[in-house]
Amino acid sequence: MVVALVPAAGHGERFGSTTPKQFLPLNGVPVLIRTLQRLCQLPDIAAVVVAVPAAWLEFSRQLCQQYGFGSTVRLVIGGEERQDSVARALQTEEVSEAEFVVIHDAVRPFAPAELFQRVLQAARQHGAAVPGLPPTETVKETTPEGFVRQTLPRERLRLIQTPQAFRRELLQRAYDAALQHHLRATDDAALVEALGHPVAIIEGVPENLKITHPLDWALAELLAHIEEQR
Ligand code: C5P
User: Fold this and answer.
1) Which of 50, 57, 85 to mutate to test the pocket of ligand 1 (most atoms within 8 A of CB)?
2) Reduced to 3 states, what is the DSSP secondary structure of residue 225?
3) pTM: predicted TM-score of the whole model, two decimal places
4) What is the pLDDT of residue 20?
């Protein structure tokens, strides 16, 4: 059994809107709802747990009801950082019964079903799997003074996306260890890596856009428009 966790408790500081971007309507349908519509169509997913900001809990409840997710989606209050939001979602009863957990950012509404299937398949095989894409630009490590420390070999680098999939027991062990050793990470796989467990990388998809900056919104509108014409 697979449970999906959706961190949706960010405040979107980089986006510059008072409404967090996951709640903004994208061509009429809120970003979070678009993400949930994708997830809930997958045959493998038994339950979905969504972490939202405390101030948006009631709004989220109403939104889920309006779009017919009232009984399928479990809402929890998120935390200070993404990692804290996932940690809270991990504590729910739904998760305790799962064999696998797939974590997907609310702000990536265009992840195709086949990506979820591939990442889950790799997690069944290796315990942990993430999608990644090679960077298209040259990546350099910097010094605190604003100079180049070194140029990194692009062929070996990957920009990591969600969905990320894990054996539930492994992910829970990673989160427990992170709590114990005060580890902070920007994705879930990093905490599994810290345990020394291998994480498989599968091919990501370019249209799996993470809506972060205002410019991403224009691209998201275009992608949503193309999708609706199919
Ligand atoms: O902040 P970042 O770009 O890593 O956000 C990725 C996802 O994590 C977003 O969907 C955002 O809503 C979520 N998040 C969260 N709790 C936070 C911060 C971010 O659930 N405290």
Assistant:
1) 85
2) helix
3) 0.96
4) 94
